[in-house]
Amino acid sequence: MKKLGLALGAGGARGVAHIGFLKALEDNGIKPSFISGSSMGSVVGACYAMGITPEYMIKIVSALRARDILDLSPTALKNGTLLKSKKMAALLSRYLGDTEFEDLHLPFCCVGTDIISGGKVVFKQGRVATAIQASSSIPLVFAPVAYENMLIADGSLVARVPVEEVKNMGAEVVVAVDVLGPISEMDEIKSIFSYFFRLIDVYDSQVNKMNLEKHPADFYCAPAMGDMSQYKIDGDKMRFAYEKGYESAMKIMDRLKQKLNS
């Protein structure tokens, strides 16, 4: 059987679909040989590579509430971020502890963006929780993570779906799971925050399109989650995203099995 690589894309709350996707693979006796992740894709990918089951992951995220992650910064204007990010760091540490990349059960990497140089950073060693926090630090929302001589922010700024990275790991068949999918039209701009996030979405969509054209995957999956917001933490929506991820995997399952066994 050929070696399967999963490129799990960024997407905030919509990234819960990755969990359903992994569950579908397991139900069909398929286990990836390599996983790469960006932002929320890095969170799910790291947990799975550590050995945390999809069933346990969906249990955790279904119980999450905004207060578990959001810690508003009283000095937001001075520090440049809305949140202090301490709760986010604590949550990651709770489940990943001080696990390092070499301790994972599956080869895994994740991407971040060095906002000092503007370059892409690929994490393959060191403390996993630190790398995941850096990869998931949405600009102006979560504080960037100081790492060596860099300042790392969200990986989706340079690689929303890190196909190139999982190919470099040795994957022979690559599945790209893009939980954001093609950008849709926006009805209206309600606030300066909606305007800001829309700008990120537009930029992100264009970069992602160019990256996928340059580094195409064997299978591209975009779970159909409608207008579900990536920025809103809603426990009731977690199961919905999970089911859509499962459905997305099942749509390619027969062709994926054939490709892996060819």
Q: What oligomeric assembly is this protein in?
A: single chain
- Report the mean per-residue pLDDT as an integer: 89
Share of β-strand residues:
5-15%
Percent of residues in helical segments?
A: 40-55%
What characterizes the major β-sheet?
A: 8 strands, mixed
Would you report the number of β strands? Answer: 8
Overall structural class, as computed from helix and strand content, comes to alpha/beta
Low-confidence stretches are 71-83
Number of helices: 9
User: Per the principal axes of the C-alpha atoms, what is the gross shape?
Assistant: globular
Intertermini distance: 8 Å
Query: Gyration radius, to the nearest Å?
Result: 17 Å
Order of secondary-structure elements:
EHEHHHHEEHEEHEHEH
Could you explain the architecture of this structure?
By secondary structure, the protein is an alpha/beta fold. About 40% of the residues lie in helices and about 15% in strands. The protein has helices at about 15-25, 40-50, 55-60, 75-80, 85-95, 130-135, 165-170, 190-215, 235-260, and strands at about 5-10, 35-40, 110-115, 120-125, 145, 150-155, 175, 220. Strands 1, 2, 3, 4, 5, 6, 7 and 8 form an eight-stranded mixed sheet that branches. Strand 1 (about 5-10), helix 1 and strand 2 (about 35-40) form a beta-alpha-beta unit. The longest helix has 26 residues, at about 235-260. The protein is globular and about 50 Å long.
